[in-house]
């Protein structure tokens, strides 16, 4: 928000209050995705590499750099890819919330993916059922 101020972007005062829940919900969704991914990755060094192959493509194939309507004008295929990308809906939710507007579809998609990623991460971390229960113990030679 401080950087936006220096670029002379002045959202309405209500936008500062409506963007906070959008930021929290977006952080929960992306954090749940990271937890899900970390349940399948055994070494910390591999985690950074996998995150680069997941987060960067999600970022670049979203509306974070260009508005969705502009992407639709330039490339219909990229527009369809952006529409199914959950990160696009995170960006749209934050973008609209900053100006005090409510994006129903993006909110539903972000909540849905946050719940899905969190449920999958909880299952994966369950020692009796998830991915951690199927991992080999050190020294067992699996």
Comma- or semicolon-separated keywords:
mainly alpha; 142 residues; 8 helices
Quick structural gist:
This protein is mainly α and 142 residues long.
Please characterize this protein's 3D structure.
This protein starts with a helix and ends in an 8-residue tail after the last helix. By secondary structure, it is mostly helical. It has one domain. The chain is globular. α2 runs antiparallel to α6, α2 (13-40) packs parallel to α7 (104-125) and α4 packs antiparallel against α5. It contains eight helices and no strands. The chain has helices at residues 2-6, 13-40, 44-60, 68-74, 76-84, 86-98, 104-125, 131-134.
Computed CA radius of gyration, to the nearest angstrom: 18 Å
Can you give the helix content as a percent range?
over 70%
Question: What is the straight-line distance between the termini?
Answer: 50 Å
User: Based on the structure, what is the oligomeric state of the protein chains?
Assistant: single chain
Instruction: Sketch the major β-sheet.
Output: none
What structural class results from the helix and strand content? mainly alpha
Order of helices and strands: HHHHHHHH
Structural domain tally: 1
Number of helices: 8
Mean pLDDT: 85
- The count of strands amounts to 0
Fraction of residues in β-strands: under 5%
> How would the global form be characterised?
globular
Unreliable segments (pLDDT under 50, ≥5 consecutive)? none
């Amino acid at each position: 928000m401080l950087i936006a101020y220096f670029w002379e972007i002045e959202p309405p005062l209500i936008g500062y209050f409506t963007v906070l829940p959008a930021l929290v919900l977006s952080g929960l969704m992306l954090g749940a995705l990271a937890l899900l991914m970390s349940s399948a990755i055994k070494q910390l060094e591999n985690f950074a590499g996998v995150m680069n192959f997941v987060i960067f493509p999600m970022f670049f194939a979203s509306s974070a750099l260009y508005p969705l309507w502009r992407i639709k004008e330039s490339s219909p295929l990229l527009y369809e890819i952006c529409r199914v990308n959950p990160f696009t809906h995170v960006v749209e939710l934050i973008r609209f919330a900053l100006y005090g507007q409510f994006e129903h579809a993006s909110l539903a998609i972000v909540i849905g993916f946050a719940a899905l990623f969190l449920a999958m991460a909880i299952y994966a971390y369950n020692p009796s059922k998830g991915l951690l229960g199927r991992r080999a113990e050190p020294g067992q030679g699996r």
